[in-house]
Design brief:
The protein has 335 residues and is an alpha/beta fold. It contains twelve helices and eleven strands. 44% of the residues lie in helices and 17% in strands.
Length: 335
Amino acid sequence: MTKTITIAVDAMGGDDSPSKVIDGIEMHSQESQNVFYKIYGDEEIIQKIITKKKIKKNQYQLIHTREKIEGEDSALSAAKKGKNTSMWLAIESLKLKESDAMISAGNTGALFVIAKLNLQMIENIDKPALSGLWPNKNGLNVVLDLGANVECNEKNLIDFSLMGSALHKALYPNENPKVALLNIGSEELKGNNIIKNTYQKLSSIKNKLYEFYGYIEGNNIMEGNVNVIVTDGFTGNVALKTAEGTANFITAELKKALSSSAMGKISSFMNIKNLTAFKKKLDPRLYNGAILLGLNSPVIKSHGSTDYLGFYNSLKVCEKTIKGRLIEKIKDNIY
């Protein structure tokens, strides 16, 4: 008999919540078996929405609270709001072993702080890392760190290599993780001392979970030669924002070019299939769901501005990390 997994959901975080959250749960519940949702938020508001959805009553539990973390709250002020916010209660359910994973589209800084206050780090992991999914020519990359740690040492980057590989294996069990260090060049002598020392150590480590590829430059991230890309949080966050901005720019400019003239509109109509595939490839909602790695339970961050489809995809990430035994894979392979 398949074990039911439980996902704790902060229903009040992010834009257009809780509507998009409940819509995402409805979509996810229609295709996923043996998943139970513990939904934290304003019961009066949520009840009006959820009764109109195709979500069975035995698939969820509402835990009422009117308190929530606001997007403009600082991480410190959010933590000081107390233990009755929807975000805190959802994370606390992990601490109490009432849930298997937790998801929120709320304030990122607050999520980090509250998660670290409630949850223990995995033994021998010094720092958590925020990882995300990026498309490449052959599938998807796991990229980390995306902003949790501005500065990292060699051990942190080696830990990130292991955690990112464990995540990729949990999400895509039929693929073998290949790790690369993001750098300003592909030659061994390029980069600062931390990067070069990490390269030497990873080259000498034999880990059954992943293969070390070497350096990768920013312009090769999407090539698909590797599927786990490791960097510090400063560089990773800059790369993430640059990629998001570039994708939005290309999509907007293409749309403008194809709608600005009669010939452009005709061309758009004739190539509708190819254009739809192109748009889908760059749709950030399909890659939504960043994971805070290093804690002893999965904490998933959905983008605050995403819609129900993006939240649904974050729930898929939640489910896969649990069924793929992410935490166990990290613990089994840590040095």
